[in-house]
Design goal:
There is one protein chain. With about 210 residues, the chain is α/β, with parallel strands linked by helices. It has seven helices and seven strands, in the order H-H-E-H-E-H-H-E-H-E-E-H-E-E. A five-stranded parallel beta sheet has the order 3-2-1-4-5. Helix 3 packs parallel to helix 7. The longest helix has 19 residues.
Length: about 210
């Protein structure tokens, strides 16, 4: 059985609202900023300000025609307070979001995710290089340890191209884009909702707040 995490009630100003136009750090420093804020991230995750994390694995030969589908998917995930990371196989940086301006990303993100990302100085979509980098794996391991569960029990998911299923490191449930961006986002949101309640973490899904008593 998953262990319930007991946290003190969050202070109303646990994350102060700053300007959403604060310049985000470069990609190589973005993960470092999140990594250095592990304690705040865990609290934000447990309290529901950040409802979950989805990593999108993009192959180096991703075609330009895929950008619109990825862009729609990312915007819909952000609207559900889901942090998005972008990783690639054997490449330092991939960009499936078509250079979406940072203000547009913040406008898509709901308040909890926007406030958390703005507070630590990162965008709600992070390029992390490779998902199997040691520091990334260590980050997820520590978050799982704090929650007293396995990584697969966390509200996280991976979106992988069909040809790479089973060939790369992943966290959480694995989804593909076969059903299109809209349906994929709905399936992920529903799964994260289920995982949060299984962890005895309050959640809201489809605008409704579901308290776990």
């Amino acid at each position: 059985m998953n262990r319930q995490v007991h946290l003190s009630d969050p202070s109303p100003d646990i994350i102060e609202k700053n300007s959403f136009l604060t310049p985000a750090p470069s990609d190589q420093n973005a993960w470092a900023a999140l990594d250095s804020a592990r304690d705040l991230f865990f609290k934000s995750l447990a309290f529901g300000r950040v409802r979950g994390v989805v990593d999108i694995i993009v192959p180096p030969d991703s075609e330009q025609k895929d950008d619109l589908a990825y862009s729609q998917l990312i915007h819909e995930l952000l609207q559900h307070d889901i942090l998005v990371t972008i990783s690639g196989r054997g490449t330092e940086k991939t960009d499936p979001v078509g250079m979406i301006p940072a203000p547009d990303l913040f406008q898509s993100a709901e308040n909890g995710l926007s406030e958390f990302c703005d507070f630590i100085g990162v965008q709600p979509v992070l390029h992390i290089g490779r998902i199997d980098d040691a520091e990334v794996v260590d980050f997820y391991n520590e978050i799982a340890q704090r929650a007293g569960v396995n990584i697969g029990d966390l509200p996280v998911a991976t979106i992988s191209p069909d040809q790479y299923l089973g060939e790369t490191q992943n966290f959480g449930n694995i989804f593909t884009m076969d059903k299109g961006p809209g349906m994929t986002a709905d399936l992920i949101n529903a799964r994260i909702h289920e995982q949060r309640l299984a962890l005895k973490w309050c959640d809201r899904c489809g605008g409704a707040f579901s308290a776990f008593s």
